[in-house]
Amino acid sequence: IEQLNKIYTRMIDAMTINMRVAAPHVTSEE
Fold first, then answer.
1. Is the dihedral of CA 16, 22, 27, 30 positive or negative?
2. If you average pLDDT over residues 9-30, what whole number do you get?
3. pLDDT for the residue numbered 9
4. Which of 6, 14, 17, 20 has its CA 20 to 30 A from that of 27?
């Protein structure tokens, strides 16, 4: 389960970065 959690966290991180790049007007909306 720990490995899955790490993979999930990385996926979320990448998604967040993509969102920031796609929507720069969205500064800090966690």
1. negative
2. 76
3. 94
4. 6
